[in-house]
Design brief:
By secondary structure, the chain is of the alpha/beta class. It has two domains: 284 residues, Ribonuclease Z/Hydroxyacylglutathione hydrolase-like (Metallo-beta-lactamase, Chain A, 4-Layer Sandwich), CATH 3.60.15; 181 residues, Rossmann fold. It is built from 14 helices and 22 strands. It has a seven-stranded mixed beta sheet. It has a seven-stranded mixed beta sheet with strand order 7-8-9-10-11-20-21, with helices on one face. A hairpin with a 7-residue loop joins strand 9 and strand 10. Helix 3 runs antiparallel to helix 5. The chain is globular. About 1% of the residues have low confidence.
């Protein structure tokens, strides 16, 4: 067998790993979109390390676009097999991939208009540039027809000699670790594992990550390989303090960039609890300004089977943990624009890295007002606007304008959905270092992978590998 690393190698986005069995059967583990602005990755989303029609199946760990976002492109380019995932992942992809396709279409239209403006005529621009979307809404809809879902904790076959087991990864709704049990002609079965994104224990809403079965080969994420999240039992207190200072004392706006799936729901649930406890200041209004987040929250409501015991008990007292009187979900563009005038308000909007979506407009309109606060609550890839703000930039360029950063910038990493170094090590305790022949680290920047590799080696893992993009290994 061979494993080729076709994405998320030395970087955090674009998860994609190709396993080719001894008989040539090809299994793609994730098929994610690269999200970021590095010049050297400009062509990543349009090119493949393999022929899409040669792939037999896709096994998808979860719905985040950096793990699922190129599936419509894969189908468009010739993939005709099945995409296997959990039921909640399928439901989330049904909205997220269509939304991604619409963004691809709009981006292509924008680039075409720019090209036409620089060319002698629209006809010449189309001849010279021929700008096409990565994929269309029609491509995404067709791809969704190739999804098949299976629950956690039940082996299912994808090949006469390969069975798959999903276990709850605790990262987002429906997220799973993947274990492949591979029979190899009279030899002992080979267990090949893929952690997907490792979630965190003791977080709201979702169950804790469940350990994987011991594997012979394992692909492991390493997003926070050199970091320990702030452990703060007073997370609610810090959030309340920021709300009090920004929205009550300064009568400003608290802008929270948040991923539509997972982070937004956790924030809303946290604020819902504060409201029920009578601790949320009465003068503060809360807005979730993201059509995707609205739809994703509806999917959450359909899957209480993924919730933990604490959430089930909470729902006995509050049947809707994602809604209360002062919380407003915004979908219409005109309603979103009207938020420019509000004061004493919390605005939660996507995307979490401030790379696209309505959050860019809210940041643009709020960044130069010292009464406002922008609260970062999750990972931001290098070179993104969110990363620059979190790093303390004095100015930012947004929508072609240079703006002074006068708003207060705060961070709460305790909201992160990715396990930190200690939590990932705990997750890997189910593995047997002497059995594990190779441990591949992906989904992490080198400066975070190298310290994690060193710690893993101290724990007894002898063959920890940091693959580079396109690298292939025999296993």
């Amino acid at each position: 067998m061979t494993i080729q690393f076709c994405g998320a190698a030395g970087t955090v986005t674009g998860s994609c790993h190709l396993l080719t069995l001894d008989d040539g059967f090809r299994i793609l583990l994730d098929c994610g979109l690269y999200q970021g602005s590095e010049d050297e990755m400009e062509s990543f989303n349009r090119e493949w390390f393999f022929e899409p029609e040669s792939v037999n199946v896709v096994v998808l760990s979860h719905a985040h676009i950096d793990h699922s976002g190129r599936i419509p492109k894969l189908v468009k380019d010739g993939f005709s097999g099945t995409v296997f995932c959990t039921p909640a992942t399928r439901d989330l992809c049904s909205i997220m991939l269509l939304d991604s396709a619409q963004i691809q279409e709009k981006d292509a239209e924008y680039e075409q208009r720019r090209a036409e403006g620089k060319s002698r005529s629209p006809k010449t621009a189309k001849q010279e540039h021929g700008i096409q979307p990565l994929y269309t809404v029609e491509d995404a809809a067709r791809a969704l027809g190739q999804f098949a879902s299976f629950p956690y904790e039940k082996w299912f076959p994808i090949h006469p000699d390969v069975d798959v087991l999903f276990r709850d990864a605790g990262h987002i709704l429906g997220s799973a670790s993947v274990t492949l049990r591979i029979r190899r002609g009279g030899m002992k079965d080979t267990f090949f594992g893929f952690t997907g994104d490792i979630g965190r224990p003791n977080r709201p809403i979702l169950r804790d990550p469940k350990p994987m079965l011991p594997c012979d080969y394992l692909i492991c994420e390493s997003t926070y390989g050199n970091k320990i999240h702030e452990y703060t039992p007073d997370q609610d207190e810090r959030l309340l303090a920021i709300i009090q200072e920004t929205c009550v004392e300064k009568k400003g706006k608290l802008i929270i960039p948040a991923f539509s799936v997972g982070r937004t729901q956790e924030l809303v649930y946290t604020i819902d609890r504060l409201e029920n406890e009578g601790r949320l200041p009465r003068e503060v209004s809360i807005f979730v300004d993201s059509p995707m987040a609205v739809n994703a929250t509806d999917v959450f409501r359909l899957h209480p089977d993924c919730f933990d015991e604490e959430m089930h008990r909470y729902m006995l007292e509050d049947p809707d943990p994602f809604g209360f009187k002062r919380l407003h979900y915004i979908t219409k563009v005109e309603d979103s624009k009207s938020l420019n005038k509000v004061r004493s308000a919390i605005i939660i909007s996507a995307s979490g890295m401030i790379t696209a979506g309505r959050i860019k407009h809210h940041v643009s309109n709020s960044i130069e007002d010292p009464d406002n606060t922008i609260l970062m609550v999750g990972y931001c890839a290098p070179h993104t606007l969110g990363a620059r703000l979190a790093a303390g930039a004095d100015t930012i360029r947004i929508f072609g304008e240079e703006k002074m950063v006068r708003a207060r910038i705060e961070s709460l990493s305790s909201f992160s959905a990715h396990g930190d170094q200690r939590e990932m090590l705990d997750f890997l305790k189910s593995q047997e270092p002497k059995r594990l022949r190779q441990l591949f680290l992906v989904h992490g920047e080198p400066e975070r992978q190298l310290p994690f590799k060193a710690v893993l080696e101290q724990e007894g893992y002898a063959n920890v590998v940091l693959p580079f993009l396109g690298e292939m290994f025999s296993v």
